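Lab notes, practical 5.
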Amino acid sequence: MQKKHKVGLAAAGAVLVAVPGGLVVKSQATAAEREAEQKSLEQAAEEVFQRRADAPEADWRKYAPPGGKVWNQADARADVTEVESKGAKFTVDVNEITTPYVSDTYGRGLEPTTPYVASHRFVFERNGDDWRLVKDLTEQLSK
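Output from the prediction step:
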């Protein structure tokens, strides 16, 4: 009788050890999924910013380039600061960092100029493996 009791206690101890370990693994997997999702959303926002930066009517092209230079191109980056999910839609607070470049009139001597930074709030939803921009809520950030 005493042997059965010890075996029962040993089995109960194994279950208790296994449960927290399982939770840790699940928690790490969930954190990894969130991180991958955030990176994916960051890339989607970066694509939005790059399209805007590449447009002929881009904001940075409205200003005169530094002396003797012409505007050439711009590189846009995104830095996601917050993600909130509501069903299939994800509200994302993201900072835009766009660096315009100048060159000579022949496109040589590419030089970065002062980057500009702006904060945005976008709503994305899944579109297969990609994201689709549903709404730009940037105006809400200033309210």
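Observations recorded by the TA: The first helix runs from residue 2 to 54. The chain has two helices and five strands.
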